[in-house]
Design brief:
The protein is built from 25 helices and 2 strands. The protein is mostly helical.
């Protein structure tokens, strides 16, 4: 599984020659990523007949470019109108939207673009260098370790609750309760489904995401006659704002590096999504920050951490797909179908028999991110003007596109109604000062946490100590305790110093 320089140079040359497939993939990925509910896997499934008819290398280049661009584009609506384009961009709303309200939408978009591209580049190069070792992470981390990793994401509820501990924890617990709707993971017993077959598989994430963020935000805009546009945002977009964003990103270069590596490690674990990586990266970024009180108020590091992490996931999800034949995510599963249709057998033998495919996937990803730099960076200047659109224009657009997005995921009319219901829940939460992000964290991570916890307990025959039976898990438990105790100790010390 070694890669010499001559082969690497040949793969890069071949990948750059596929620009005609990469550029359309980037453009389509951006368009799809901006619209909540339109995921890359759904888009690739629709385009499956096209990719199956293409040459295998061109098909891979197109799919990878679309996948990477989609992850990056999800942060655009999250920053501009507080509506994450995907679950992985939900954490970006916390500081990105606050920067927009301060009149720094263009700087926030530049931070998002730079963190996304740099995070994707760093992790793609890291995978090329460390692929033999990274391929083993998906096999080493089992249910016990996954329980602790998901708890890292759930601790973000405590971070959000720091401003209002009671309301934050109530919101998180409410989200966990909603996440338990559906059939029991062990006995398949329906829980809180009220006889509705559409809820037997649990709450669909896309309508919940759209309702809590998009519909609720549209209702707030209508009430306040305010489209996230303070008076200072009406000035013309200037290139100096783009340069200012680049300077801020350069100042936080180390933050981009280590949070993207968090995304890579989480992405290598089959089934772990970009939202886990984004929430863990945000929580860890705040933990090790010298100014944790700035998070949630429009802090640049709060935009960089989740964006670099959820783009670090892109290369991570393809590691188990190529190395052991297990798809790291739903998009990787679609790519796996295309590869198998072309007669390519995934697994360790692929690296000896067809290294141009095995390593070429990650080289194509590197090239796709390189090509994104001139394509997306100038877009920040013009995309930031979205916030100047009048309320009576933008609210119908938001409601129309997002409700269609709620329907597109499963093609159920029920999901459109569900999005409206969660829109009302989100609106009530905003108006009563409950954090909708803490509710979303519970809904997203609750079912996954329950599944891995029950699996671990079944392995340990009901003994709770099985959660401490692994050396890796014990190290993760120690880090988790530090993540919870350190912020409390720091706040107590600051309060004592102030007194």
């Amino acid at each position: 599984m070694e890669l010499d320089l001559a082969t690497l140079a040949e793969l890069f040359g071949r990948s750059f020659s596929l620009w005609w497939a990469i550029i359309p993939g980037v453009a389509l990925g951006l368009a799809v990523g901006i619209l909540p509910g339109f995921s890359p896997q759904n888009t690739l499934i629709i385009l499956l007949p096209v990719t199956l008819a293409m040459d295998i290398e061109a098909a891979l280049a197109f799919m990878i470019a679309l996948y990477c661009a989609n992850h990056m584009a999800g942060g655009i609506p999250a920053i501009l109108v507080n509506i994450p384009g995907s679950a992985g961009a939900a954490a970006t709303c916390l500081d990105g939207y606050q920067m927009t309200k301060k009149g720094k939408a263009q700087q926030a978009l530049v931070l998002s673009f730079v963190a996304s591209v740099a995070g994707g580049l760093i992790t793609s190069v890291a995978v090329l260098a460390l692929l033999p070792w990274l391929a083993e992470i998906g096999l080493v981390l089992r249910s016990v370790e996954m329980v602790v990793i998901i708890l890292f994401g759930l601790t973000l509820i405590a971070v959000l609750a720091a401003k209002d501990m009671i309301k934050g924890l109530i919101g998180g617990m409410f989200g966990l309760m909603l996440g338990s709707i559906g059939t029991d993971a062990v006995f398949s017993t329906p829980r809180a489904t009220f006889g509705l077959l559409e809820l037997y598989d649990g709450l669909p994430l896309v309508p919940v995401l759209i309702g809590l963020f998009a519909v609720s935000e549209a209702l707030v805009m209508l009430e306040e006659r305010f489209a996230a546009t303070p008076p200072e945002q009406s000035r013309a977009a200037q290139w100096k704002d783009t340069l200012e964003g680049l300077a801020i990103a350069a100042k936080h270069w180390w933050q981009i590096v280590w949070t993207s590596l968090i995304g890579l490690i989480v992405g290598v674990i089959p089934g772990a999504g970009a939202y886990i990586a984004a929430f863990v990266a945000y929580q860890q970024s705040r933990l090790f920050s010298k100014t944790p009180e700035l998070y949630g108020t429009g802090h640049p590091a709060g935009v960089i951490a989740p964006e670099s992490a959820n783009n670090g996931v892109t290369s991570g999800t393809l590691v188990p797909t190529m190395a052991i034949g297990i798809p790291g995510g739903s998009t990787a599963a679609v790519m796996m179908i295309v590869l198998q249709y072309q007669g390519i057998t995934l697994g360790p033998r692929l690296f000896q028999e067809q290294p141009n495919i095995a390593f070429g996937v990650f080289v194509m990803m590197t090239v796709a991110y390189i090509m994104m730099i001139p394509l997306v960076l100038p877009m920040a200047r013009y995309a930031s003007r979205v916030v100047a659109v009048p309320v009576h224009t933008i609210v119908p657009l938001i409601l129309g596109l997002t409700i269609i997005g709620a329907f597109a995921d499963r093609e159920y009319m029920f999901d459109m109604v569900l999005a409206l219901v969660f829109g009302v829940i989100g609106y009530i939460a905003i108006r009563t000062n409950y954090n909708v992000t803490s509710i979303l964290i519970g809904v997203l991570l609750g079912p996954i946490f329950e599944r891995y916890l029950l699996r671990s307990l079944r392995i340990g025959q009901g003994d709770i100590m099985v959660l401490f039976s692994s050396p890796i898990a014990n190290v993760l438990w120690a880090l988790l305790v530090v993540s919870v105790v350190l912020p409390l100790w720091r706040e107590r010390r600051l309060a004592r110093a102030a007194a």
